[in-house]
Every structure is written in structure tokens, then in C-alpha cells.
Amino acid sequence: MVDGSVSSQLATAYRTGDYSYRVPTPPKIVVPPPTLNADALPDVTLGALRQQGFLSDLNHGNHVKSNVLIEWKYEHRRLAQKIIPPVWLGPMTAARDIDFLRENGITMLLGVRPGNAFQAKVYASTVQLAQELGLHYETIEAANNQELIATFPYATRLIDQHLRRVHEAQQSGIEGAPLTGRVLVFCESGNDRSAGLVAAYLMESYEDVNHIKAIQMCQAQRFCVSFDDRMKSTLESYWDILVARRMVGESGGAIHPTARFGNGVNATYGNGANGTYDTIGMKNHRQDMTTRAKRKLEIDEDGDGDAVMGGAKDDDIARFGGRSFAPFLDMEEAE
């Protein structure tokens, strides 16, 4: 039962806003447009690769050669665009365009599709075309962003391993070997899951590319990509994972080379055939809660067991001090 002093305080207070019963939404991730350089082109410069190798000879400057805000046309959404020289991004129609594949020297198709039987049949014709043209083909299956983030490291290795094999074949003088490897990453529209996968590849491959810069790079090359709030949050989470992994590596720790960060779901792939890749989830080694000290406020207690709330008041000031919004105000203050 509420005593008299508390009820009198409630009677003189009023709410400053409407009640909301929905789940709190996470803060929006704002991706600003890139600045323009002296040539009026988006200035999205890529730094050094994390793993130096045969790709280190690649020019890692500004790969953006056009201003999509001015030159983009609606019809371009049906075409594939070069994000960086070895990696292209586009829709399924581009993956079925034989002239495009031959003219641009595409050597591998990497499809990203949701996990259902209908989509498997839709992608089957693309698999058959890749086999006829002698292209390497892989499929990553992800029904949602939670499954997609678990496949990011695997997709990066698929791309890098293919590019390395093509390079080694060229260096060995194998007859008919392509000069360089080029991978077309695609989904049905080329704007959703495949765009997120390419952004994750940039984040994992380059030293100075976080989720914001990766999104800017994709948008600067393919203007119609759609990074909604969920995809932005997914990429931000993956960036946090990459930062943690790099910190562990720099401190001398070891991470299993096939480790997957995600919810332990399965990702399906194959080279023209169906295969199942079991995602290896990182085990969450937690201490027994019975041995972990409980977090509590440091408050004094008098001899009768009554808490002296001075410490709690100081804690409230530290947490809420400086905020301009107050959910309730006293009537006297409102007047």
C-alpha cells in the first residue's frame, strides 16, 4: 500500500510524453555519403590488404570511376558492377548473361540464396550454365541475416582460394588459364544478401574498411543496393567480431582457422552439386554462475539492516545526470 508521502508526490507529477509499450528499437546506423575528390568522384579509398600476397600488386586506391548519383540509370540495376577488380556484384540476370560473363572475364559465380526448394530450382539453371562455360560455381544458403553473418568468413575464403588458384595456374603457365580471377557475387536482385556479403568481404580483407566504409563502397559502385537497418546492424556486429578477432591475434591468441561466428546454423554450398557445410559456432565458455560474484550497488547498511541509499543516489546521478529528457516533472516545475 502506498503511504501518504509517496501518494502526495504522485499527485503533483505528470508525464511529459506518451507511454510506449513496443520493444525499444536500436539506434539507427547513419551512413553518410562519401566526400567527392577533385574529379567529382566519390572518394572511397581502400588501404592495404590484411594478408599480403598475390593480390598485393593490385592498385588499392580509389576504384570508383564514375559518380553514380549523376550517371546511374534505372536499367543499370539489371547489370553487374565492379566493386573492386576481382569482385563484381549483380543480380541473377547478370549471372545468366553469357556475353557479360565472357567479356568481363568472370571465372567464378558465387550465389546467395534463401533456403527453400523453389529458390534451389531457380538457381539450378545458373549452375548448369556455369558448368557449360567451365566456370567455378558456389552457392551459399542463408534464410536470414543471422544465418548470413555465419557464412561471411567462409565466403571470404571461397573467394580468396579461387583467386589464388587462378593466379597459381597463370604463374605455372597452364595453357588456357585466365590472366586473373574474377568473382561475380549475386542474389536474385543483387541488392540485398549478395551486397551484404561483398561488404563483409571488404571489411575482412582490408585494414581500414569498417562497416560504414564497406557500405559506402558498394553504394558508390552499385547505387541500387539496399542496406536496410537490419543489414546495417548485421554488418556492424560483424565488424565488432572482426575487431575482437584482430585484437586476439595481436595479443598472441589463437583462433581456429575454420571458426564461424554465428548461431550455429548450417550453410549449404556446392560446386554444381548440393553439399552441406556445417557452421562451427564459437563456444561460449561461461563461468558457473554460482562461482561468479554478483554485481550489486555498494551501499552501507546500519545495524538494523536498513540500507542507506546515499550510494544508490550517487549512482543514479552518474547514470542519468546531464540528460535533457525527464519522463515525469513536478507540477510546480511545470508551472
Helix content: 25-40%
Helix and strand pattern? HEHEEHHEHEHEHHHEEEEHEH
Distance between the termini: 30 Å
* Coarse structural class: alpha/beta
Q: List low-confidence stretches.
A: 257-309
Compute the CA-based radius of gyration.
27 Å
Q: Can you count the beta strands?
A: 11
State the helix count: 11
Shape: elongated
Largest sheet: 5 strands, mixed
> Could you report the average pLDDT, rounded to the nearest whole number?
76
Strand content: 5-15%
In order across it, which strands form the biggest sheet? Answer: 2-3-6-4-5
Set down the secondary structure blueprint:
Blueprint: H1 4-11, E1 13-15, H2 68-71, E2 81-84, E3 87-91, H3 92-95, H4 98-103, E4 108-113, H5 117-133, E5 136-141, H6 145-171, E6 183-187, H7 193-205, H8 211-221, H9 229-250, E7 266-269, E8 275-278, E9 300-301, E10 307-308, H10 310-320, E11 328-330, H11 331-334
Parallel strand pairs: 3-6, 4-5, 4-6
Antiparallel strand pairs: 1-11, 2-3, 7-8, 9-10
Structural notes for this entry:
The protein has 335 residues and is of the alpha/beta class. The protein is built from 11 helices and 11 strands. It has helices at residues 4-11, 68-71, 92-95, 98-103, 117-133, 145-171, 193-205, 211-221, 229-250, 310-320, 331-334, and strands at residues 13-15, 81-84, 87-91, 108-113, 136-141, 183-187, 266-269, 275-278, 300-301, 307-308, 328-330. Strands 2-3-6-4-5 form a 5-stranded mixed beta sheet, sandwiched between helices. Strands 1-11 form a two-stranded antiparallel sheet. Strands 7-8 form a two-stranded antiparallel sheet. The longest helix has 27 residues, at 145-171.
